[in-house]
């Protein structure tokens, strides 16, 4: 089973560039998790024969949003966190923006596992959303996947907006304390690992130089001056089933590229 994750940074833009359909035809994922779709389903024209589609758009138009496109019909699909998680963790930032209304989480339940796609809030250049990340979002998301795991194993993937270690970005020293590489964000990721979730890419690739996002400035992508902030993590019980994990840097259309795992 091939599971892909891609922050498309606007599904309409990727479709306009004619990058999405060729990617789908070539890679034929069994499950494709999207982040930052920035659109309602009614706003796009796309034909996906053989796939079922599920969309979770933000209340704010043209912002955030996730989707799951899948060959196999899930047993159940849930948008967002359960109400008790959202209420307990108070997912509202200092500017009163409610991240629970931004279409950032979707869950598809299959017979043997859950697949969760997540678009983690960006801490912002001024770190105005760092407190939300550290005190609310990251704890809520971890609690949610641990809750799901009590029923069956979990695969969660998406743009987690953090480089976990110095191996995961080209210039770690100059980015310490900046968004995506603060102590708080890295700690949030580490807590997921400590809880038993496995960063699948690191099962196969231990070195640096492998990134999934590049700035638009200074030809960063062609120079491979990037960050690995897109991940697929699995419950420890599934790690032996992961046969490969990849970052598809040749897929264009977004400032992110897809990442994937193959389960056997």
Task: Give structural attributes.
alpha+beta, globular, Deoxyribonuclease I, Chain A
How many helices in DSSP terms? 7
| The named CATH superfamily | Endonuclease/exonuclease/phosphatase
CATH-defined fold name? Deoxyribonuclease I, Chain A
Q: How would you classify the helix and strand content by structural class?
A: alpha+beta
Largest sheet: 6 strands, mixed
CATH class designation: Alpha Beta
Secondary structure tally: strands: 14
Calculate Rg over CA atoms: 17 Å
CATH architecture field: 4-Layer Sandwich
Q: Which range does the strand content fall in?
A: 25-35%
What low-confidence regions span 5 or more consecutive residues with pLDDT below 50? Answer: none
Largest sheet, spatial ordering of strands: 3-4-2-1-14-13
Termini separation (Å)?
6 Å
Helix content estimate: 10-25%
Q: What is the average per-residue confidence, as pLDDT, rounded to a whole number? A: 95
Q: Your description of this structure?
A:
By secondary structure, the chain is of the alpha+beta class. The protein has a single domain, classed as Endonuclease/exonuclease/phosphatase (Deoxyribonuclease I, Chain A), CATH 3.60.10.10. The chain is built from seven helices and 14 strands. The protein has helices at 11-16, 20-27, 83-89, 130-149, 172-175, 183-194, 201-204; strands at 2-7, 31-35, 52-56, 66-70, 76-79, 105-109, 114-119, 154-159, 197-199, 213-214, 226-227, 230-235, 242-247, 259-263. The strands form three sheets. The chain has a six-stranded mixed β-sheet with strand order 3-4-2-1-14-13. The protein has a six-stranded mixed β-sheet with strand order 5-6-7-8-12-9. Helix 3 packs antiparallel against helix 4 and helix 4 runs parallel beside helix 6. The mean pLDDT is 95.
């Amino acid at each position: 089973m091939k599971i892909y994750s891609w922050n498309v940074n606007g599904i309409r833009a990727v479709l306009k560039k004619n990058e999405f359909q060729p990617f789908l035809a070539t890679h034929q994922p069994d499950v494709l998790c999207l982040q930052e779709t920035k659109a309602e389903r009614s706003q796009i024209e796309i034909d996906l024969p053989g796939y079922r589609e599920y969309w979770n758009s933000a209340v704010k138009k043209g912002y955030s949003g996730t989707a799951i496109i899948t060959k196999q019909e899930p047993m159940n699909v849930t948008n967002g966190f359960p109400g008790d998680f959202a209420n307990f963790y108070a997912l509202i930032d200092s500017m009163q923006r409610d991240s629970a209304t931004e279409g950032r989480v979707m869950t598809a339940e299959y017979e043997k596992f859950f697949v969760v796609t997540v678009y983690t809030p960006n801490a912002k250049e001024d770190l105005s959303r760092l407190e939300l990340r550290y005190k609310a979002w990251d704890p809520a998301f971890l609690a949610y996947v641990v809750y799901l795991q009590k029923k069956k194993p979990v695969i969660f993937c998406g743009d987690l907006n953090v480089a976990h270690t110095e191996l995961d970005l080209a210039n770690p020293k100059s980015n310490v304390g900046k968004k995506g590489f603060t102590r708080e964000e890295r700690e949030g990721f580490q807590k997921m690992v400590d809880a038993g979730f496995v960063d699948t890419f690191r099962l196969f690739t231990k070195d640096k130089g492998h990134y999934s996002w590049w700035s638009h400035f200074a030809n960063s992508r062609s120079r491979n001056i990037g960050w690995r902030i897109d991940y697929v993590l699995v419950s420890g019980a599934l790690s032996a089933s992961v046969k490969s994990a990849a970052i598809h840097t040749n897929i264009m259309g977004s400032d992110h590229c897809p990442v994937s795992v193959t389960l056997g």
